[in-house]
Amino acid sequence: MYISIITYAVLLFLLFYNAKIAWKQDSYINDFSTVESTKGLRGFLVICIILHHISQEEAFRQTHILGIFPEQGYIFVALFFFWSGFGLIKSLRHKNDYLNTFLKKRVLPLVVIFYVTTLFYALFNIITGVQMTLSKWLLSFSGLILMNGQSWYVVVLIILYVSFWVIFKTVKKEEIAILLILFIVLAMGAIFIYIGHFGWFLGPDLWWLDGKNWKNLPWWKNYYVFWFSGEWWVNSSIAFVIGLLFAKYENKIVDFLKKKYFVKFLVLTFMLIIFWLICNYCLGHFSYWSEYSGKSAKLILVDRLISYLSTLPKVCLFVIWVYMLLMKVSPKNEILTFMSKISLETYLVQLIPLTLFKTFILKNGQAIVQENFINLFRYEVLVLIFSIALGFGFSKLMKVINKRLK
Known about the structure:
It is built from 16 helices and 4 strands.
């Protein structure tokens, strides 16, 4: 378990090294919610997301190494959605002609990085000998199915950004506009609740429980093929709406939170723990993966609905808890600032080292655990180093591409 201890110690060091802390009862971090002030947090979060994906490998699950990470990746992503929504409202308030240049400045770079990443992974798949039918190649290049599974985040962000642009262009009342975006977020959740993880609806009831039906299965009935084929597509985006609301009412919210700050922080912490436990209970007893419970299709949908709804208050309370914490603690150092500058690029390329170095922890489809877990430690370190290195190189490439597109 020394790997976990070392990892957690390094994370705590990164979080608090050179951090600005408002120790006094009535003192707070100035401008704690600005882009500059949250850079450290963003850099920290991308490291946590990589560790989350490392911890999901079977060798790590079997040994419970990095045990706090396997099921919590979406709460880290939720904070990115929160600050995205928060930043849009702030920019709308303070930048002239913001909506008229929005598509070019905010949406186009996301579309470009999505398709550049797609080409990047197409090359990686060719080099590593991944076999796909012509139809799957074409759909992958179109973006209708993902060449890189991590690109789901960019797809959802584009949907939210375009929705923001259309709605705020046409709806004058901000409260109604935010309510409409909430509806879109919940609609995406409803799509996943129906689709699930694979084409369960493309055959007779419970066909997937018979192993024979998986032999020579068409690719379009397999796991994670189409958009929203996975709970990670939808279980964190509610934070985008919370970000919009907090930016709109920031002054009132901050003034409210400052009055008896520590009492409210303790109450919020207690509420977060309660809803965290409720969420864990629902995910354990109903599950996003109830396809394999033997239940009927209707009950499977009910299970996914309950699981999805149980995550919403947990995510909302968590991002508010972090927002409140940032009023007192501001992580900021050279390492986290550097990571914040390449956070999206690092996130998008991490699947390559995660895949390349699996030979350390996997053999003939079986997890490998060597003495003293040394192979797991090597895997973790190599994935982190190469993810960051590739992310840095990819960010340089994107700067050149975006500069030529201006």
